[in-house]
Amino acid sequence: MAIDQVLERALAGERLGLEDGLRLYDSNEIEKLGHYANKIMEKWHPEPIATFVIGRNINYTNVCDTYCRFCAFYRAPGSEEGYVLPDEEIYKKIQETVDVQGTEILMQGGTNPNLPLEYYTNLLRGIKQRFPSIQMHSLSVAEIVKIAEVSNKPVEEVIHLLHEAGLDSLPGAGAEILDDRTRKKISRLKGTWQQWIDVMKMANREGMSTTATMVIGFGESMEERVLHLLRVREAQDEMKAVGGPGFLAFISWTFQPENTNMKAEKQTPEQYLKNVAISRIMIDNIPNFQSSWVTMGPDVGKLSLSYGCNDFGSTMMEENVVSAAACTYKVNTNHILQLIREAGKIPAQRNTKYEILRVFKEGESMETDFVMQN
């Protein structure tokens, strides 16, 4: 079925619906989808700049009682392999990030039932006292819900107290697929899609920006994928309507089945790029779309900059969750500059708020460089 009419409507600014999305997923014209997604991206970002952020993912604990079937990282409470990093080790990791001009810390772990609210507020205050300029883009919806449960406080109050202590923004982790059929299959204890949206709206009311994510390859239907995109779009409408910062970015990636308790066929680079493009075409109210080179590899990450992405994501000095699933792509910062230039773009370092900190001239490189480490 021809998709040209659907794509032209999207390019003209018309909002697409469920049937339109299904037609796009039914199409195998991936390059055409990418072409239109890129044109829509250019309406948001007319300058040929692709951004990235220097950040580190600190997995402060691997103890988790949510038991997601797709996760190879967690250890059950009581496991000898479970850990909680000492505060001083976390401070050391942040100092290493600052030393290479890093600005963002993505601090995430499991839903650890042994850590009360005070653990998090004390840690955040300690971080901000030592590193006042670092942006704490940290904690997933599931972690915040667990903190509220352990502390016997409403989720909205917990978000306020965490924000007050130094939590700047929420990453989109835990969205997976925003449909309860698939969520029950892959992570029965993680909460409904509506709960994920509700927590994001609470953070928005608190004045915190957030990001939205999507993971494909769990065996979800194409209708569930489209519903995911529509639900993110609707939530963004509602968050912006009340004057909040809303979702600053959308990031999709593919499920990595290695070392997990789920059998699934690994998604191809073409399937990933198709999903990236359709996401950009369907979601007309989120400005930034981020590449996922950590799961797809740097070359596919580079290609995604022609399929609707304007951002290369984080340099990810450290990452353990995806790596636990035997997915260990590594790049250094100057390689990121090279990849962005090879995509025909001008590289620029940004912060968590997508404010540009530095545009790199032709041939210019980072004075300090590092390789992602686990």
TrEMBL record:
- Matching InterPro entries: Aldolase_TIM, CofH/MnqC-like_C, Cyclic_DHFL_synthase_mqnC, Elp3/MiaA/NifB-like_rSAM, F420, FO_synthase_su2, rSAM, rSAM_sf
Q: Which biological pathway?
A: Quinol/quinone metabolism; menaquinone biosynthesis
What this protein is reported to do is described as: Radical SAM enzyme that catalyzes the cyclization of dehypoxanthine futalosine (DHFL) into cyclic dehypoxanthine futalosine (CDHFL), a step in the biosynthesis of menaquinone (MK, vitamin K2).
Q: Which gene encodes it?
A: mqnC-1
Q: How is the cofactor bound?
A: Binds 1 [4Fe-4S] cluster. The cluster is coordinated with 3 cysteines and an exchangeable S-adenosyl-L-methionine.
Q: What Gene Ontology molecular function terms does this protein carry?
A: 4 iron, 4 sulfur cluster binding; 7,8-didemethyl-8-hydroxy-5-deazariboflavin synthase activity; iron ion binding; oxidoreductase activity, acting on X-H and Y-H to form an X-Y bond; transferase activity, transferring alkyl or aryl (other than methyl) groups
Name the positions where [4Fe-4S] cluster binds. C64, C68, C71
What Pfam families does UniProt report for this protein, alphabetically? CofH_C, Radical_SAM
Q: Which residues hold (3R)-3-methyl-D-ornithine?
A: S140, S292, S314
> Domain Radical SAM core spans what residues?
50-287
Family according to the record: Belongs to the radical SAM superfamily. MqnC family.
PANTHER family given for it?
FO SYNTHASE (COFH) (PTHR43076), LIPOYL SYNTHASE 2 (PTHR43076:SF1)
Give the UniProt keywords, A-Z: 4Fe-4S, Iron, Iron-sulfur, Menaquinone biosynthesis, Metal-binding, Oxidoreductase, S-adenosyl-L-methionine
The EC number of this protein is: 1.21.98.1
Q: Which reactions does this protein catalyse? A: dehypoxanthine futalosine + S-adenosyl-L-methionine = cyclic dehypoxanthinylfutalosinate + 5'-deoxyadenosine + L-methionine + H(+)
Protein name (record): Cyclic dehypoxanthine futalosine synthase
In this chain, S-adenosyl-L-methionine is annotated as bound at F70, E176
Kindly list the cofactors needed.
[4Fe-4S] cluster
- GO BP field: menaquinone biosynthetic process
Question: By its UniProt entry, which PROSITE patterns does this protein fall under?
Answer: RADICAL_SAM
